[in-house]
Design goal:
Elements: H1 9-23, H2 38-51, H3 62-75, E1 81-85, H4 89-98, H5 105-116, E2 126-131, H6 133-136, H7 146-152, E3 156-160, E4 165-167, E5 175-177, H8 183-192, E6 197-204, H9 213-232, E7 236-243, H10 251-271, E8 280-281, H11 298-312, E9 319-322, H12 329-341, E10 349-354, H13 356-366, H14 373-395, E11 407-413, E12 430-432, E13 442-449, E14 452-460, E15 483-488, E16 495-500
Parallel strand pairs: 1-2, 1-10, 2-3, 3-6, 6-7, 7-8, 9-10
Antiparallel strand pairs: 4-5, 11-16, 12-15, 13-14, 15-16
Helix pairs in contact: 9-10, 10-11, 11-12, 12-13, 12-14, 13-14
Length: 510
């Protein structure tokens, strides 16, 4: 059978070729480089264009960058995390309802005061507190604004700046977050009112066809725009792309989605010229869905979480503050401890930004009654100290340190002690071989101020607060043991010394 030629094809192809040839004739004025051909010359031109691309405008000054970096590092200093007390009026209404308490402004103020005025045992545990707009302008019973209360305890004041999620048109029930309108003006005012960092939450969910590429890109760009506005106003942005634990997805599926979302977020942050050293990330832990029938160990969850972070989060980010994601107090603490003990390299500080996981016991103990104030504060302090104890045990290599192990602590001097011998095996803790002090002994410690040697400071040491022994730790802690070490605090200008011991008797620090 003879091959049939398409009618008119030659004419049309010839015409198209002529049009293309006419349209893309090389400009005679562009002469090839004497040593480079046209292709190489275009490559060099591309490099020049890349080198002159516009950057963030106005660009952050070195002073602004240093301020942002310093704030971020103060929040995630060793042993410290974030108390998320930024529940909206509607969200806290559900919690107050659970204890039979009316959702009034005074009850909300009193409950926030309960947390913020807890005794000084909590100071080395909390690096920052995220507040709701209403709370930022409320005061304690003694007349001090809440931001002043937080700063007096060495904490950094944060503020929730997003205005909630709204449906994302064109998607199957997915959302984006609103609040960019007027954000720059609000951030400028919040900075004047004492806030140094902010939080913005975006929400994604795992389903058969979600999260969609549209939802991932939209939320990533919203987070980047928010971060840029914050940094221009001297506020450290906490970037929170939360992947909800709802559903029956397994651990592998959650890890895959987490990696895709975080990769998109950091691509958007790069596109918006965000100074990563002046940011923090608040992600979900990689966990299976609540309806998943397969059970995973804490070590498997930790490995999946750290692997996802290592694949997506640049080491320039100072810290990662995990949200609890609906986990119980105990589960959130155990998983975070497992993440910190994961044998993979982790270039960031890994800590917490917990709401319910720090407050649930305190809320229950309070019960809406003012006479329960001290009991509720004790529950909150106990939960925070558990986190500190896990951080300390991890730094000293006590892998078996768990919730309930007895420990006590006492603040000494607002000045840094001299001659603290470091130990290679404990990079985040400096150990000291000092004998325990008796309750009535005075504490003498040489200090430095402004680089010059100062006179020794002498203080009387009352018995430190203690927690009861509920269970003993590993073999290394079976015998009554006192280990003294120093954890640098947020400003780096002073330190605290702690004692850990499995003995139910009181122990004292020096």
């Amino acid at each position: 059978m003879a091959k049939r030629e398409p009618q008119g094809s030659g004419f049309h192809m010839t015409g198209l070729s002529m049009v293309l040839a006419y349209s893309f004739t090389p400009d005679a004025s562009v002469q090839p480089h004497p040593q480079l051909g046209h292709a190489q010359q275009q490559t060099e031109l591309g490099k020049e264009l890349t080198g002159t691309m516009p950057h963030q405008y106005p660009a952050l000054t070195p002073e602004q960058k240093k301020e942002l970096s310093d704030i971020a590092h103060r929040i995630v200093a060793p042993g410290k995390g974030i108390l998320a007390a930024d529940e909206s009026t509607g969200s806290i209404a559900k919690r107050l309802q659970s204890i039979g308490t009316e959702n009034t402004e005074e009850n909300r103020r009193f409950y926030r005061q309960l947390l913020l005025t807890a005794d000084d045992r909590v100071n080395p545990c909390i690096g920052g507190v995220i507040l709701f707009h209403e709370t930022l302008y409320q005061k304690a019973d003694d007349g001090r604004p809440f931001p002043q209360v937080i700063k007096a305890k060495g904490g950094v004041v944060g503020i929730k700046v997003d205005k909630g999620v709204v449906p994302l048109a064109g998607t199957n029930g997915e959302t984006t977050t609103q609040g960019l309108d007027g954000l720059s003006e609000r951030c400028a005012q919040y900075k004047k009112d004492g806030a140094d960092f902010a939080k913005w939450r975006c929400v994604l969910k795992i389903g058969e066809h979600t999260p969609s590429s549209l939802a991932i890109m939209e939320n990533a760009n919203v987070l980047a725009r928010y971060a840029s506005i914050c940094q221009q106003n001297g506020i450290v942005p906490i970037v929170e792309p939360e992947i909800l634990p709802d559903g029956d997805h397994d651990l592998k599926r959650c890890q895959y989605v987490t990696e895709k979302v975080l990769a998109a977020v950091y691509k958007a942050l790069s596109d918006h010229h965000i100074y990563l050293e002046g940011t923090l990330l608040k992600p979900n832990m990689v966990t299976p869905g609540h309806a998943c029938t397969q059970k995973y160990s804490h070590e498997e969850i930790a490995m999946a979480t750290v692997t996802a972070l290592r694949r997506t989060v640049p080491p320039a980010v100072p810290g990662i503050t995990f949200l609890s994601g609906g986990q119980s107090e105990e589960e959130a603490s155990i998983n975070l401890n497992a993440i910190n003990k994961c044998p993979l390299l982790k270039p960031w500080a890994l800590t917490f930004s917990y709401g319910r996981a720090l407050q649930a016991s305190a809320l229950k103990a309070w019960g809406g009654k003012k006479e329960n104030l001290k009991a509720a504060q004790e529950e909150y302090v106990k939960r925070a100290l558990v986190r500190l104890g896990q951080e300390v045990g991890r730094a000293l290599g006590w892998t078996g340190f768990r919730e309930g192990t007895f420990f006590s602590l006492w603040f000494l001097s607002p000045l840094r002690p001299t001659a603290l011998p470091a130990k290679e095996s404990t990079p985040r803790a400096v150990r000291r071989g000092l004998p325990p002090a008796s309750p009535s002994s005075s504490l003498t410690m040489p200090t430095k101020r402004g680089g010059a040697e100062a006179a020794p400071s002498t203080r009387q040491a009352p018995p430190p607060p203690t927690l009861p022994l509920q269970e003993r730790g590993p073999r290394g802690l079976q015998a009554a043991l006192s280990q003294h070490f120093c954890l640098p605090r947020d400003t780096g200008a002073w330190c605290c010394l702690y004692t850990l011991t499995p003995s139910p008797s009181r122990a004292y620090c020096q």
